[in-house]
Amino acid sequence: MLFTDGSRSGDDVEALATAVTGVCPGFSLGGALHRSPTSVLLHGEVWGEPVVAKVLVSTSPFWRETFAREIDVYRFFERHRPPFRTAELIAADERHPLLVLERIDGHPLSTARYPSEEISSRQLAAAFTALRRVNDWRVPVAALPRVLDYRSRLERYRRGGQLTGDEYAHVMALLGAVGDACEFSHGNLMLPHILRRMDGYKEGDYALVDWAFGSVFLPGFDLARLWALLRATFGARSEIDDSVRGRGQLAWNAYLVNQVIVVAQELRTHREQPSGPERDERLAGLEQDWLTIRDRLAFAAAAV
């Protein structure tokens, strides 16, 4: 590990670049692209080709495990070529840890987790089409570890009081009804992770990045997360709901289970944050969302 949490050394871009060069000798630093509390993203070149290097600067066991999983996903993409655009893996090292990838030029559909700016319906439609190509990939399931145990997560929510007895019974009935249905998913999809690569509106103009949680989930996990995050984006939720309903009852039941997982997680996160205007407004919206999901659960479970 290069630095400890909170260390000012995390701002030493040259030291980070030296670490990258130790793993990828052809790396030439261009500069810093992005900093988060856990990692730094550098841009540069490897033998004249544009790349990005992601370096973990957190010592948290959770983030070390997450980073190692992200490396594993890119190695999985090398062994099993996906039918959608992903960055080529150049180099990786779990010990430091760091990752060097081909740079995909583009602009995120939004830089905000909860976007408030207008996103055009054409852009959303093209992004949803590109996502469908990801979810339709018939990935070799046995070769990719699952990152979410639905039963244990839902049981934890029940024990923690996030699910009432009736809500737990309803969601478990739906979970049983969907059986082994699954699809490959991004796992942490939000608009900052969707790059618009060109000026057009075709699915090929979009690429997904940040694959740390890429795995097999129940169908509709990525759409359930987008539904939760795009509350302020006009038309997004109705388009997502209509798309899932059009795939049949099994897809809808799986989507509802995923909505429970995603919105319960968002509620817990917001309830743990200090009170403030943005947090309070989002929390109120999430609590309203939970009422919607609770009614959907009860209705769907009655038909199982």
Describe this structure in a few short sentences.
This protein is of the alpha+beta class. The protein has helices at residues 13-23, 61-79, 121-135, 150-159, 165-178, 221-229, 236-245, 249-271, 277-302, and strands at residues 27-35, 39-46, 49-56, 89-93, 98-102, 107-108, 183-185, 194-196, 206-208, 215-217. The chain has a 5-stranded antiparallel beta sheet, sandwiched between helices. Strands 6-8-9 form a 3-stranded antiparallel beta sheet, with helices on one face.
CA gyration radius, whole angstroms = 20 Å
Task: Output the helix-strand order.
Answer: HEEEHEEEHHHEEEEHHHH
Largest sheet: 5 strands, antiparallel
The fourth-level CATH homologous superfamily of the largest domain is Aminoglycoside phosphotransferase (APH), C-terminal lobe
Q: Poorly predicted ranges (pLDDT <50, ≥5 residues)? A: 1-10
Largest sheet: spatial strand order: 1-2-3-5-4
Structural class: alpha+beta
CATH top level label of the largest domain? Alpha Beta
* Global outline: globular
In the CATH scheme, what's the topology name of the largest domain? Answer: Aminoglycoside 3'-phosphotransferase, Chain: A, domain 2
Task: Give the helix level as a range of percent.
Answer: 40-55%
**Any idea what the CATH architecture of the largest domain is?**
Alpha-Beta Complex
Number of contiguous helices: 9
Mean pLDDT: 92
Overall number of domains? 2
Distance between the termini: 50 Å
Task: Give the percentage of residues in beta strands.
Answer: 15-25%
Q: What is the tally of beta strands? A: 10
